[in-house]
Amino acid sequence: MNQATQATLPLVIDDPRQIRATVERQRKSGKKIGLVPTMGALHEGHLSLVRASTAECDCTVVSVFVNPAQFGPQEDLRKYPRTWEADLLALEECGVDLVFAPRNEAIYPPGFSTYVEPPRVAKRWEGACRPGHFRGVATVVLKLFQLVPAHAAYFGQKDYQQSLVVRRMVADLNLPIDVQVLPIVREADGLALSSRNQYLGDEERRQATALSSSLDIARQLVEQGTRDARSIEGRMRQVLDEAGISQIDYIAVADPETLEPVERITSRAVVLLAARVGETRLIDNQLIG
Ligand code: AMP
């Protein structure tokens, strides 16, 4: 590695006390701090959040932590992709200042037993399919907000329900942080970027484009005047079915704030979808109106 590269590498910190002290020092010197929480295996979706933070803040902290508390016992925690070297290079290129990459024991030391009860908006959809998931998400996000006292935190619309859970928690618990939610970054054929896309085989990768196509069709139907949520869901199911995707966890037309299902689209709505392509569970969504 040459000197120039070394000079711009982000400082990697794994110790919770050290990250807090470092960020507090930066804050005291008048810098605006941005935080981008991730589980690593970074792609352009993550990097879009990082770039928003580096554009708006003087100091960007990216956390890389595969949070065991948000995985169910049957889920892919152990095989979740870990691409540490490539992640660090990508963060260096984006001009990230600090990377917080704690070990599990630093976040959940022996005796840890306090969890956040997630808000009502966590109940349906992902919350129903993945019991305990949002409890784990809310808990780790609150801990990250404590350890990295940032002015702003950046999340992706890709995890739409998660963004509402975080926003609600920040409002309900009076957390002094501004939550920004940025648009979904997609592949050229529409597939939403996800760390889990790398599990897909060639045929599955082709099938997976049906998720975003079905959302496009939902949007077109609404543009053409369809208001009935059941017909939209039915048409989406058909698109997935034709692509050979039969394991659908949910297709929902919902209120974009409460995520309660709607029967008729009167103003804005969000269409949410989760399905399994082969063994890989993918989610996607689209705001309408
Ligand atoms: P993860 O590493 O999956 O926990 O994601 C970290 C953050 O990146 C979350 O706020 C995600 O919503 C966001 N993210 C993941 N994929 C995308 C994408 N395709 N476009 C925009 N943001 C994304």
Describe the structure.
With 289 residues, this protein is α/β, with parallel strands linked by helices. Helix content is 39%, strand content 19%. The chain is built from 10 helices and 9 strands. The chain has helices at residues 3-8, 16-28, 44-56, 84-93, 104-107, 126-129, 133-147, 160-172, 202-223, 229-242, and strands spanning 11-13, 33-38, 59-64, 98-100, 152-156, 178-182, 247-254, 269-277, 280-288. The strands form 2 sheets. It has a 6-stranded parallel sheet with strand order 1-4-3-2-5-6, with helices on both faces. The chain starts with a helix and ends with a strand. 37% of the residues are buried. It binds adenosine monophosphate (AMP). Adenosine monophosphate (AMP) binds at residues 38-39, 45-46, 48-49, 155-156, 158-159, 182, 184-185, 192-195.
Query: In angstroms, what separates the terminal alpha carbons?
Result: 50 Å
Q: Which geometry do the CA atoms define? A: globular
Count of individual helical segments: 10
DSSP summary, beta strand count? 9
Mean pLDDT: 96
Largest beta sheet: strand ordering: 1-4-3-2-5-6
Structural class: alpha/beta
Helix coverage percent of residues? 25-40%
What is the strand content?
15-25%
